[in-house]
Amino acid sequence: MIGTYNPSAAAKPFAEMSQEEQAEEGAKKMIEFMQSCPGKTAMAGGSGFFLGGFFGLFMASMAYDVPLGTDSVKHISELPFKQQMKLQFTDMARRSYSSAKNFGYIGMVYSGVECAIESLRAKHDIYNGVSAGCITGAGLSIKAGPQAAFVGCAGFAAFSTAIDLYLRSESAAPPKNDYDD
After folding, report:
1. How many C-alpha atoms does 158 have within 13 Å on its Cβ side?
2. What are the pLDDT digits (tens) for 96-141?
3. Residues 83 and 166 in one domain
4. Are residues 25 and 102 in the same domain?
């Protein structure tokens, strides 16, 4: 029967399971991985990398008139069209990859710290995100000194709080209107 859980299927070796039991076991393992700290961290890093790449590509495409700074050619517009396009696409790829790495790294660090805090506290509330934002912001800016770490902590914590509050308000029950009794 489709969709029923067979407890004996988990005890069987994978090769002896039916195709349906293998699919169920695979889906169960995938869900377990996605709910684990390493899974959440990997997904946040991958999502951040993708989003950062897209954002970097968009921002790089807006900077279309960039001087080269060499002695022989003073400005990119003095080059032949084919060479201009090659330089612009190379620059777009470089900026996109750089942005992707940064977003992926921040997403990975934040998610890993938040999951670790949630595991240690054994609670799922807004304070996990606020603490993770503070630790992430401070950790990313600590090389610039204690004042920068404090500002990074405050900035990331405030942003994390705003996002958490917004997401929690979206999942709340809608307000009553005149037609509700």
Report:
1. 6
2. 999 999 999 999 999 999 999 999 999 989 999 999 999 999 999 9
3. no
4. yes
